[in-house]
């Protein structure tokens, strides 16, 4: 495995401000989080009690998508942006269990993620993994990074993984332009995978309760939910893989319908699309 230099990164750790990667770790039952992350996670869970179910279903979607890409679509290269703190069955583990030659580049902007990446994101001898300390809001810092060029063949198909990350881009971050710059850099035959938060499935009273908590200052949102049409817009010009832009629990499910959580308990859309 290769990674960016970690020198000085520990100085960037702000234990007083919640970070999405550490909060997600908390929801998944991990221990790599601080009081601010737990307080933020609990505030969101108070408004949306199913958030832990959403986090678990999001991970399950990622694994299904990687199995499809590696096992059916023949993809052997992955650019996973917003990887989060490693847990079980990460992208490289799923892909390399199908083809050990798979090569994966992870990207995140939390130094704690980098610390764990060094220890956990190991590769098969036939494949490779790398880690880039960078931010989705700065695509150039990702696309121009030497670790990406050293690990992936940018002339061959790459799967761009944007799992539960794009909803942290507000309008001022120019989300469509930002994602578009990444997609434009992909060679033909590549794929784009996204999960994105939405309020489409939530009952009216739950949405109104959340809005009231935000107005009262008890809930601080660092993400934005988008509608199905707004999410589909990210994929204009791409070939969307069946079953389309759907709730994550309905994207190529592996369990019977009666064993899946209600849509309101996993409020994310999932989509996989091919670059023509």
What can you see in these coordinates?
There is one protein chain. This protein has 276 residues and is of the alpha/beta class. It has one domain: Rossmann fold (3-Layer(aba) Sandwich), CATH 3.40.50.150. The chain contains 10 helices and 9 strands. The protein has helices at residues 20-27, 35-47, 51-71, 91-98, 111-120, 139-143, 146-151, 175-184, 204-215, 228-232; strands at residues 2-3, 77-81, 103-108, 128-133, 159-163, 191-197, 239-240, 246-247, 268-274. Strands 1, 2, 3, 4, 5, 6, 7, 8 and 9 form a 9-stranded mixed sheet that branches. Strand 2, helix 4 and strand 3 form a beta-alpha-beta unit. The longest helix has 21 residues, at 51-71.
How do the strands and helices of this protein lay out in sequence?
Blueprint: E1 2-3, H1 20-27, H2 35-47, H3 51-71, E2 77-81, H4 91-98, E3 103-108, H5 111-120, E4 128-133, H6 139-143, H7 146-151, E5 159-163, H8 175-184, E6 191-197, H9 204-215, H10 228-232, E7 239-240, E8 246-247, E9 268-274
Parallel strand pairs: 1-4, 2-3, 2-5, 3-4, 5-6
Antiparallel strand pairs: 6-9, 7-9, 8-9
Helix pairs in contact: 1-2, 3-4
Structural class: alpha/beta
Instruction: Give the radius of gyration.
Output: 18 Å
Number of structural domains: 1
Low-pLDDT ranges: 1-8
Ends distance: 31 Å
Morphology:
globular
Strand content: 15-25%
Features:
alpha/beta, 10 helices, nine-stranded mixed sheet, 276 residues, Rossmann fold, 15% strand, 9 strands, disordered N terminus, 36% helix
